[in-house]
Structure to design on (408 residues):
C-alpha cells in the first residue's frame, strides 16, 4: 500500500479498542429508527402491561383479564432493554418478529375476543395495529397475520363461545385493512419525498461543484504563472489550496453520483485497490495528516459490488474520521482489512451513547447541524445493496470503530 504507514496490531493505543470490539463485534446496530421504536415498545410493554392490569381490574373492571399473559409480555420485552447489545445477530431479527407478534396483534386480539369484542378492547386493538405498522411493513404484516391467527385459535380453544365470527368482530376487518393501507401509503409517501430531497441535493451538489471548477482553474493558472517569475512561498500555498479544493469537489461529485446511481453488485471489488484510490483522492491538508492514516491488510478481500461506489464509502468514512479528530484535537486513523471484515478506526472525539443508535439515519448529523446527514446513510444503503452491513462501535472521547462485514 503506497504512502501509508503499516502499524503493528499490538500498538498500545489500539489494545483497549480491540478488547472492546471483541465483546461487541457481533452486536447488531440496525437502522436507528427501528431500534428506537423497538426500545420504546419494550418500555411501554414493561410499564403498561402491569399498570393496565390494575386499570382494568380495579378502576374500570373488564369481563376478562389475564395477569400471566401480561407478565409473559413483560418477560419477552426485558431482553430488548438489557440484553439486546449482547444478543447474537442471527437471533435479533427472529426475536424482534416474535416480540412484535406477541405484544401487539396476539395479545390485543386475544383480549379483544375474550372480552366479547368490547368497545374498550376494540379501540385498544386498533391502536396496537397502528403501532405495529410503524415497523417495517413486511415484518408487521407477517406478525399481524400470525399473531391474529394464534390469538383466534387460543381464544376458541379456551372459550368455544368466543365471538370469533360475530358481526362486531367481522366489522373490524375492513377497518383494519383500511388502517394498514393508509399507514403503508403514508410510509411510501415519506420515502418518495426523501428520495426527491436526495435527488435535489445531488443535482445541486453536482451543479455547484461544476461551477466552482472554472474559477479555481483560473486561480491555479495565474498562481502557476506568477510562481515561475516570483518563486514566493505564498504562491505555492495558493496552488496547494486550489488542488485541495479540486479534490474536495471531486469527492462531492462522487457522492452526488452515488446518490443517483443504483448500487448493484455488478463488479468484483478489490478492497486494496479501493483503499489506494481513497488515499489518492482524499484532499489531505498535508503530509502530517496523510501520515496519520495507517492501513493494515491481513488478508486480501474481494466482494461483489462497484469499485467506484466502494471508494465513495471509504472516502466518507475517512472524512468523518478526520472530522472527529479535528473536533478532539488529537487522534489517528487505522484501517484493518481481514478475511470478510473491514475495520475503520479513529481515536478522535467518539460518539455518545444517545447519538449512536441514529448515526446511520438519513439527515441526522453528529453533532447536530455539523453536516447534511447523508454520508453514513449513503454508506449504509450502498453496503446493504451488496448484502454487506455496517455497524458502529464507539466510546465518547476515546474512539470510533466502523465495522463493515462483507458476505461470503
Amino acid at each position: 500500500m503506497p504512502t501509508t504507514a503499516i502499524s503493528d496490531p499490538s500498538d498500545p493505543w489500539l489494545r483497549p479498542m480491540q478488547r472492546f470490539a471483541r465483546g461487541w463485534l457481533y452486536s447488531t446496530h440496525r437502522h436507528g429508527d427501528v431500534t428506537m421504536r423497538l426500545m420504546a415498545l419494550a418500555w411501554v410493554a414493561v410499564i403498561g402491561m402491569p399498570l393496565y392490569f390494575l386499570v382494568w381490574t380495579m378502576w374500570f373492571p373488564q369481563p376478562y383479564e389475564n395477569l400471566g399473559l401480561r407478565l409473559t409480555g413483560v418477560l419477552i420485552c426485558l431482553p430488548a432493554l438489557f440484553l439486546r447489545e449482547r444478543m447474537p445477530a442471527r437471533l435479533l431479527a427472529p426475536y424482534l418478529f416474535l416480540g412484535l407478534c406477541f405484544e401487539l396483534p396476539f395479545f390485543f386480539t386475544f383480549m379483544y375476543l375474550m372480552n366479547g369484542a368490547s368497545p374498550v378492547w376494540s379501540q385498544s386493538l386498533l391502536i396496537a395495529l397502528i403501532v405495529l405498522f410503524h415497523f417495517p411493513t413486511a415484518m408487521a404484516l407477517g406478525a399481524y397475520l400470525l399473531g391474529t391467527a394464534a390469538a383466534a385459535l387460543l381464544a376458541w380453544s379456551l372459550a368455544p363461545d368466543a365471538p370469533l365470527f360475530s358481526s362486531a368482530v367481522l366489522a373490524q376487518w375492513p377497518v383494519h385493512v383500511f388502517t394498514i393501507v393508509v399507514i403503508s401509503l403514508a410510509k411510501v409517501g415519506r420515502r418518495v419525498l426523501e428520495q426527491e430531497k436526495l435527488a435535489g441535493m445531488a443535482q445541486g451538489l453536482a451543479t455547484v461543484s461544476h461551477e466552482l471548477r472554472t474559477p479555481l482553474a483560473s486561480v491555479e493558472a495565474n498562481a502557476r504563472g506568477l510562481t515561475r517569475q516570483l518563486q514566493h512561498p505564498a504562491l505555492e500555498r495558493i496552488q496547494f489550496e486550489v488542488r485541495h479544493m479540486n479534490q474536495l469537489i471531486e469527492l462531492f461529485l462522487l457522492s452526488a453520483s452515488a446518490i443517483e446511481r443504483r448500487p448493484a453488485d455488478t463488479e468484483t471489488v478489490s478492497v486494496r485497490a479501493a483503499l489506494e484510490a481513497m488515499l489518492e483522492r482524499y484532499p489531505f491538508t498535508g503530509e502530517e495528516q496523510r501520515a496519520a492514516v495507517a492501513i493494515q491488510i491481513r488478508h486480501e478481500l474481494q466482494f461483489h459490488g462497484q469499485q467506484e461506489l466502494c471508494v465513495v464509502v471509504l472516502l466518507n468514512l475517512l472524512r468523518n474520521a478526520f472530522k472527529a479528530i479535528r473536533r478532539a484535537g488529537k487522534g489517528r486513523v487505522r484501517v484493518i482489512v481481514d478475511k470478510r471484515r473491514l475495520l475503520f478506526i479513529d481515536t478522535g472525539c467518539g460518539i455518545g451513547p444517545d447519538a449512536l443508535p441514529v448515526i446511520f439515519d438519513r439527515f441526522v448529523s453528529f453533532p447536530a447541524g455539523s453536516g447534511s446527514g447523508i454520508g453514513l446513510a449513503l454508506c449504509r444503503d450502498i453496503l446493504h445493496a451488496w448484502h454487506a452491513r455496517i455497524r458502529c462501535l464507539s466510546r465518547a472521547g476515546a474512539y470510533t470503530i466502523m465495522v463493515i462485514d462483507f458476505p461470503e
Remarks:
- Residues 172-230 form the longest helix (59 residues).
- The first strand starts at residue 267 and ends at 270.
